[in-house]
Amino acid sequence: MTDIEVQDIGDKVVTVLKTIYDPEIPVDIYELGLIYDVFVNDNCEVKILMTLTSPNCPVAETLPVEVEEKVKTLEEVKDAEVEITFDPTWTQDMMSEEARLELGFL
Fold first, then answer.
1. Which of 8, 23, 63, 96 sits most deeply, having the most CB atoms within 10 A of its CB?
2. MIP18 family-like domain spans which residues (predicted)?
């Protein structure tokens, strides 16, 4: 698999991530800064390193599953796994400028 093909899959994964919203905040999880990294290997397997707005987040059980399931709908993706981390801890500074503008922080 070429670097271009891996990049293409990564871009498609990001597009999918931008369709998933935190139920308490009207911004997608990518712009919210909850996605720390997206890895795609040569076998078309995706690993997503993400966090939650807090360890006590009400969607802690369901959001990672939703992310995995939606990423797996991409025909190029053979498998997807989400790893949750709280290091570093999420802060509002991790939001994109677009997200801050939408939430009235700018």
1. 63
2. 11-84
